[in-house]
Design brief:
Layout (H helix, E strand, L loop, with lengths): L4 H7 L5 H16 L5 E3 L2 E4 L4 H16 L7 E4 L9 H4 L3 H17 L23 E2 L2 H11 L8 H10 L1 E3 L13 E5 L6 H15 L4 E4 L6 H14 L6 E2 L6 H7 L7 E4 L1 H10 L9 E4 L6 H11 L7 E6 L1 H9 L2 H8 L2 E4 L15 E4 L2 H10 L3 E4 L2 H7 L2
Helix pairs in contact: 1-2, 2-7, 3-5, 6-9, 8-9, 8-11, 9-15, 12-14
Length: about 400
């Protein structure tokens, strides 16, 4: 790899032991992927936050690194394992919460913002088209590449953190324009009306493409919330980090003109495929003990919709809407929080159903409108899921 003078100095320890260690690892990573150089980044998003997923070893790594270096640019955290302010009310244990707070404090000591969200683009970390970033949460990577048109590989949590400390990442993969074309074409003959349907599309296609880049021909513009759901599903059932939607996403024209489409097979998707995927995402037909929305974290418009659905109703089962603290604050200002709490629901911040120790609580069946959650919860939390639209899920527990 060709390093600049500044990068060489960091590598050789001129800017401290911590940065030297980060550069050594990133250069080794770059060599594995044949990167010719490093590229400056403008922001980072770090996964590996929940104590459930990283344990004591992850905590030790963060604390040790915090003694040697700090991040150099805007860096936000992925969701933690609990709602830091309301963990006791929600039923999480003090032992788990104490460990979780130690992890967050460790990240804060390095200069990482303790935002604890998988949707940093909803709370201010919104790169410009073609900006280079180092993000690691799978749905956020898919969104930033596809919907925003910035450039990030699907980083691991540690590599994103190291990149934030040195302000650079290896120049390979999605950072190169020639790698941002499309690999497979999907012609979708379906009129999408809700997030569950488009999540089912993403779940089905992700299993086919794995880490390749799909190009969708859809009927109209599905909107930002549905694009968020589509990318999350693609990234969980497959390993998609970039997709294109014809005449919708910012690089779709580039993908259409540079992907040798005439040589690619077109896969047709119809109503039967979507409906089969919808059914297949549920593991039971029981009424949920808990309806848990916000995977990825809910936007303010999604919370507004829930408030409209539950206004004047009394819920018979628990309802959580997972989001960031920032979006929760906005929902309070708008009056949505009061409406949801009056119905018996809760807006939960900092965490989500996938990375929380949900299996330790008194729930057996979780209702979700997220294909990502439906894919992960049975394995990561050992709980059954009911997959449906937000409207139908609210009706089930009203």
């Amino acid at each position: 790899m060709q390093l600049t003078k500044f990068e060489e100095d960091m590598y050789n320890g001129e800017y401290g032991e911590g940065k030297a260690e980060c550069m050594e690892i990133l250069v080794s990573l770059g060599k594995i992927y044949d990167a010719e150089k490093m590229i400056p980044i403008t922001s980072a998003q770090v996964s590996g936050v929940s104590y459930k997923t990283i344990g004591d070893a992850g905590l030790d790594f963060v604390v040790d690194l915090g003694k040697k270096a700090e991040v150099e640019l805007e860096t936000m955290l992925n969701p933690a394992g609990v709602d830091i302010e309301n963990w006791e009310e929600l039923g999480f244990s003090k032992e788990f919460t104490d460990k979780q707070i130690d992890i967050i404090n460790g990240y804060e000591s390095i200069g990482v913002m303790s935002t604890c969200t998988c949707t940093p683009y909803l709370i201010g970390n919104t790169p410009l088209l073609n900006e280079h970033v180092a993000w690691s949460e799978s749905s956020a990577v898919c969104y930033v590449n596809s919907v925003i048109g910035a450039r990030s590989n699907r980083e691991g949590g540690p590599s994103a953190l190291l990149a934030a400390i040195v302000g650079r990442t290896p120049y390979y993969g999605n950072h190169l324009l020639e790698n941002r074309t499309a690999d497979m074409i999907f012609d979708v003959d379906y009129e999408f009306s809700n997030e569950a349907e488009i999540g089912a599309l993403g779940y089905y296609v992700g299993q086919i493409v794995n880490d390749q880049k799909p190009y969708f021909k859809l009927n109209g513009n599905p909107g930002r919330n549905n694009l968020k759901a589509l990318g999350a599903a693609l990234a969980s059932s497959g390993a998609v980090s970039l997709y294109h939607v014809e005449n919708v996403t910012p690089e779709s024209e580039f993908a259409r003109t540079h992907s040798t489409f005439e040589e690619k097979e077109v896969i047709n998707i119809d109503k039967d495929i979507i409906e089969d995927a919808l059914v297949g995402l549920s593991t039971t037909d029981k009424v949920p003990d808990l309806v848990c929305l916000g995977c990825p974290h809910a936007s303010i418009t999604e919370i507004q919709k829930v408030a409209q659905l539950v206004e004047g109703r009394k819920l018979s089962r628990d309802l959580w809407i997972c989001t960031s603290k920032a979006i929760k604050s906005i929902s309070q200002q708008c009056g949505y929080l009061d409406i949801i709490e009056a119905a018996g629901g809760k807006i939960v911040s900092d965490t989500c159903m996938v990375v929380s120790p949900m299996e330790e609580l008194d729930y057996e069946v979780i209702g979700v409108n997220s294909a990502k959650a439906a894919n992960y919860v049975p394995n990561m939390c050992k709980l059954d899921v009911v997959y449906d639209t937000v409207e139908n899920l609210i009706d089930l527990i009203s």
